[in-house]
Structures are given as structure tokens and as C-alpha cells.
Write a structure and sequence with these properties.
Blueprint (H helix, E strand, L loop, with lengths): L2 E6 L6 E6 L2 E7 L1 H4 L9 H11 L8 E4 L3 H15 L4 H13 L4 H9 L5 E2 L3 H10 L6 E7 L6 E9 L2 E9 L4 H11 L8 H7 L8 H8 E3 L5 E3 L15 H6 L13 H29 L3 E5 L6 H10 L4 E4 L5 H16 L23 H11 L9 H13 L4 E4 L13 E6 L5 H9 L9 E5 H7 L13 E4 L10 H9 L4 H4 L15 E7 L5 H14 L3 E6 L11 H10 L4 E4 L2 E4 L5 H12 L6
Length: 616
């Protein structure tokens, strides 16, 4: 037996992943255990979980792989600060203590945090991304594309994977970064860098790309092959504590939007503009890779690969037959990639893809059996219901959803990556015109403009969304249009109000299709397809809902409130259930109804629970 532990840490989304004899046994982000969103600290709890899942100790490990080369990254920081000195002095002073305290002594931190004496391996950051994309993919050979903010020096890399080997052939280097360009607009529009980019993507359909030409002419020099250079006069991320400079602010008409400030049409147009440019860059790079490699398939990773709108456009309009994207595409997935890189690339172990990816539905985290759930519920004296058969249980939950109830759905192993995929999900009826507003404001406590994702049985996906029957989207990483046949006409008088008044409230809740809760203002949807192989009970629930309603689509959003990591344990799910307006909670094979709970308890729990989380 050979066991390899992969780690990522000290930037954001620290994580651990364990590969045993080439199989991904466990993977989890540290935030799920510590309850600190995007926890960057050493993934102590994630390591404990991974080893326990496999029944191993640190002494059983053959290798420990860290997802990047810290000394090379330190070199980049020093060279950048020197190039901009003395302008970067304040940023330098903030960054150095952590480096001098921890990052420069990473070997010591790993030995202390993991234990054991296994050899340590340090792949490049983008090698880890590339390995996380190619090695679990269903393809024997594929082109590789990684895009993020920055690793050591690399911001974008391309290459080819074949069998058990990958080769990165070209790269773009810091400070010329598509991820940092997108994050600059995230910051400018008032959202938090490294976590608010998906909010900017969700805001984009409300605007028009009126600033796209300004971006192309002033900020980015984009070539036909997708390579580019940024005009650094408009940015401050090399030397300062902010992303944008005064020149950037002058170009786009004012200072950055304060967090939680009002969203104006200008911010929506800025979001639409940078999204358009991002899609253009990704499409050009994709076409260039296809032209130079001749590969039919593409795999992707890195934070920019979470831009599911750009991914969907690349699949629809690009030259590849199929695309596979690592579900944990950001830095957390680097832990998995580092471990797989050691197994296949360094040790030369074979890889035999069989047409199905090796990610196991990305359901790689902790699970809690029925006995654990029963002990917990009995301990808190919570009223709950069991059912004589699996069919009775699933049909009962489907009935609640068909009645318009919102259901917390806690099942099996927790997801690895940022998306809830049916293990730690909140579900609702996609046909309900009120569902989006209710979930946003009373369940998630988040911005009203944020769209929700549809989850659909794979065999019905192409009838409802613009996906080919040959394509699937099991990891919620592709955006497709709702089919025309499901569109609903908007009354002319309502359209006139929307055209005249940019207030988001007049646009968010307009019924545009027969599944309005998951139809964005541009008729797009971030689709998750479900099959009986990866998640059989979730597929069973969707089939029961289809049998009751004739609709195979539900709303699927992550089981958490704004500012909180996705729940990990039954205890966390129960508290979130009490603190929000969810109607029912499913914990493995039991169901709890809010109507049967003590209202005094739920009121007290809501105040205490929400006070814990910084609503970013």
C-alpha cells in the first residue's frame, strides 16, 4: 500500500487530500472543521480527517506533497517589492511577519502539523492545478489549461496530458493575470477578493458590457492566441494593499463601491464588461490550445476555472468535444493535485481512465451514519420522523418540496470544493416564483440579485437546458440557457418598468420561465446534472419529485448562511435549520419539521447563530 497526503495552506482555502494506491480516499477544506470561512491556516483538522477516513496514521504515509514551492513564491514577492520600491513598503511590512514566522519554515510546519517522517515533495503551484484537472478526468489524453491569480510566478499555463504523464509547455507570468484582472473589478464593485468573484459573475447579466472597449483599450493588450499584458498603471496589487489605482478609478468614474453599499447600474455594467472580456480571453486561449495540440478534450483548473459562464461558452462555442473541470478548481484542489502528481508523474504509476471521472462525485468528506444522527437528535430532544422504507422516506421529502417547502438536505459524504452537490444542500421547488427571494432573504441572508442553481436528472437535462445529451455537468461548473420552450412571456408593461427603472428589485423576481427560481435575468442557469451512479439517493429524490410534478428540476444551494462555510456535521445542520426559515430538515434517513419545533428555541437560536458570522 502506498499513501500520499496532499496539502494546501497559508493563502486561502487550505485543504488536505489523501490518495491511497492511486485512489482518492478523502479530501476536505479546513474551513469546514474550524468554521472560519476560507481558513488559510495549516489544515490540521483536514489532515486528521483524511488519515482517520483511511484508518492510517502519519507513520503510514509514504509521501507528503505541498501544492507549491514557497521559496519560489517568496522570491517573486521580494522581486516585486524591489521593483516598485519604495511604493510597496506598507504592503511589504504586512506580508513579511507571516513569511518569517511560518512560510519560510514550511518543512518544520508540515512536520509539526502532520507528524511522521515521510519525504516532502513540493510541485509547482500550476503543476498541482494541472494534475488536479487531468489525472481525475475521464480522458486518456487531453489539453490542459490552468488559470488563476498567481502561483509562484505563473498565472496561466497550458499543456497536454497523456496516460499517466502531463507536460506544461507555455505560461503567462505575474503580474499579467486574468484572475487578478477579474479580482480588481471584484474589489472595485465592493465585493471581497478571493471570495466575491462569483457575486460579480452573478451580477453581470443585469448590466450591459458598455465598458468592455475601455478595458480592452486601457487595461489589457490581448493577442489572438489569448496571451495578454496588463497596463500596471491602473492597478495597485503589485505594491499596495488594494487592487486598483487612482487612474483605474478615474477611468471608470469614481472610487470603489463600499462593501454593502448600494449597487448602481454602473456596477452592473462593469460586471458585464469584465465578464465579457474574461470570456473572450478564455475562448481565445482555448482555440489556441486546440490549434497547437490537436486534442479533442480539455481539462481545466485554477480559480478562474470556477467561472462557469466562461466555461459554458467555451464548451458551446469552442473547438473541444468535451471539457472536464476540477470541482475544487481553486487552491483547495491543489492539495489533491499535489498528491496525484506524486503518484502518477513522479512515481510513474499507471492510470487507466474508463470514461467516468475518478472524483467520486467530489463526495470525499466526512459522513455520519444513522446511529450518530439518532444519538444527536435524542440528546437535544428534537422531534423527528423515521419511515418504514426508503421509498416512503424519499416520497415524503418529494411531497414537502412539491408543496413549496424549503428543505435542508444532509446526506452521506460532504462535498470537496465550493459547490453543494446534494450532500450538504438546501432544496426548493424551481417552479415557485417566490423561491429565489425567499431563499436569498430568509434562508441565506444574502444579496437579492444572487441566482440559484438548478439540479436536474441527467437524462432530462437536455430537454430543459442548452446542454447536449452527450454532455453532463455533475459539478455545477457549466452555465447553459433555459430552453426556449420553457420561457414565459414578460408582460409589456412590466418590461417597460424594468427598462425605465434600474432598481434590481424590479428585475430579480420577474417570472421568465416555468422554472423561475433558477432562471437568471438572461435566461441562463448554472446547471448541475445528477445520475444514479454518483449520488443515488439524490437521483431517487428527483425522480420522486418528477413523478409528483412532471418537473425533474429543483433549486440546489449550499447548506449555510452568508458568511459561514457549508455545514459539515449534523449538529451544524440542525443549528442552521433552527436559525433560518427552512421548513424541514433531512438528516440521513430522518426528517424534522419546523412546525414541530419549539418557537422560543428557534428565535433564540437565530440571534445567537447569525451573530457568529461576518456577513461579507
Amino acid at each position: 500500500m502506498s499513501a500520499i497526503l496532499g496539502l494546501s495552506a497559508f493563502y486561502h482555502d487550505s485543504a488536505a487530500a489523501l490518495v491511497v494506491d492511486g485512489r482518492v480516499v478523502a479530501a476536505a477544506q479546513e474551513e469546514r472543521f474550524t468554521r472560519k470561512k476560507q481558513d488559510e491556516r495549516f489544515p490540521t483538522e483536514s489532515v486528521k480527517y483524511c488519515l482517520a477516513e483511511a484508518g492510517l496514521t502519519a507513520n503510514d504515509l509514504d509521501f507528503v506533497a505541498f501544492y507549491e514551492k514557497p521559496l519560489t513564491k517568496f522570491e517573486r514577492l521580494l522581486e516585486t517589492y524591489l521593483a516598485f520600491a519604495p511604493a510597496g513598503l506598507k504592503s511589504f511590512a504586512q506580508a513579511m511577519p507571516l513569511w518569517l514566522r511560518e512560510k519560510l519554515f514550511l518543512r518544520r510546519a508540515i512536520r509539526s502539523g502532520v507528524g511522521g517522517t515521510a519525504p516532502l515533495v513540493f510541485p509547482d503551484h500550476h503543476q498541482s492545478h494541472a494534475a488536479s484537472a487531468f489525472f481525475p478526468s475521464p480522458f486518456d489524453r487531453a489539453a490542459i489549461l490552468t488559470l488563476d491569480g498567481v502561483g509562484e510566478w505563473t498565472t496561466t499555463s497550458i499543456g497536454v496530458g497523456e496516460g499517466n504523464r502531463l507536460r506544461l509547455t507555455h505560461e503567462l507570468r505575474f503580474p499579467h493575470s486574468l484572475g487578478l484582472l477579474y479580482s480588481a473589478f471584484t474589489y472595485y464593485c465592493g465585493f471581497k477578493v478571493n471570495s466575491g468573484e462569483y457575486k460579480l459573475m452573478g451580477l453581470a447579466p443585469y448590466g450591459k458590457p458598455v465598458y468592455a472597449d475601455l478595458i480592452r483599450s486601457h487595461l489589457i493588450d490581448l493577442k489572438d492566441d489569448g496571451s495578454f499584458r496588463l497596463n500596471l498603471a491602473y492597478f495597485n496589487f503589485c505594491q499596495g494593499l488594494t487592487m486598483t489605482s487612482r487612474r483605474f478609478h478615474d477611468l471608470f468614474g469614481g472610487p470603489p463601491r463600499p462593501p454593502e453599499g448600494d449597487l448602481a447600474q454602473r456596477h452592473m455594467d462593469l460586471a458585464a464588461s469584465i465578464q465579457m472580456v474574461t470570456e473572450e480571453v478564455v475562448l481565445r486561449i482555448g482555440r489556441h490550445i486546440h490549434k497547437t495540440t490537436g486534442e479533442k478534450h480539455l481539462v481545466m483548473a485554477g480559480g478562474v476555472a470556477l467561472n462557469c459562464v466562461a466555461n459554458g461558452k467555451l464548451l458551446r462555442e469552442g473547438p473541444f468535444d468535451d471539457i472536464w473541470i476540477q470541482p475544487a478548481a481553486g487552491d483547495a484542489g491543489g492539495a489533491l493535485g499535489a498528491a496525484l502528481f506524486v503518484w502518477h508523474q513522479l512515481l510513474g504509476k499507471p492510470r487507466e481512465p474508463d470514461g467516468q471521472d475518478a472524483q467520486s462525485g467530489s463526495l470525499l468528506g466526512p459522513q455520519f451514519d444513522s446511529a450518530h444522527v439518532a444519538r444527536f437528535l435524542n440528546g437535544v430532544e428534537a422531534p423527528h420522523h423515521r419511515f418504514p422504507t426508503e421509498s416512503d422516506f424519499v416520497d415524503h421529502v418529494a411531497g414537502l418540496l412539491a408543496e413549496g417547502q424549503i428543505v435542508g438536505w444532509f446526506q452521506g459524504r460532504m462535498e470537496f470544493g465550493p459547490r453543494a452537490l446534494g450532500a450538504r444542500s438546501i432544496l426548493g421547488d424551481a417552479r415557485s416564483p417566490q423561491m429565489q427571494a425567499t431563499m436569498n432573504l430568509k434562508i441565506k441572508f444574502r444579496e437579492s440579485f444572487r441566482p440559484f442553481a438548478p439540479v436536474v436528472l441527467r437524462e432530462h437535462a437536455s430537454n430543459w437546458f442548452g446542454l447536449s445529451p452527450d454532455h453532463e455537468s455533475p459539478y455545477m461548473l457549466l452555465v447553459a440557457q433555459v430552453r426556449d420552450g420553457h420561457h414565459t412571456a414578460i408582460p409589456p408593461e412590466l418590461q417597460e418598468v424594468m427598462d425605465r427603472d434600474p432598481d434590481l428589485r424590479h428585475r430579480v423576481n420577474v417570472v421568465r420561465s416555468t422554472i423561475p427560481a433558477v432562471t437568471h435575468v438572461d435566461y441562463s442557469a448554472r446547471v448541475q446534472t445528477v445520475d444514479g451512479t454518483r449520488n443515488p439517493r439524490f437521483a431517487q429524490l428527483l425522480r420522486a419529485f418528477l413523478g409528483r410534478t412532471g418537473c425533474p428540476v429543483l433549486v440546489n444551494t449550499s447548506f449555510n448562511v452568508r458568511g459561514e462555510p457549508i455545514v459539515c456535521t449534523p449538529q451544524e445542520a440542525y443549528r442552521c435549520f433552527l436559525a433560518t426559515d427552512m421548513d424541514a430538515l433531512v438528516l440521513e434517513d430522518v426528517v424534522l419539521h419546523k412546525s414541530e419545533m419549539d418557537p422560543t428555541l428557534t428565535g433564540q437560536e437565530q440571534q445567537q447563530y447569525l451573530a457568529q458570522f461576518q456577513l461579507d
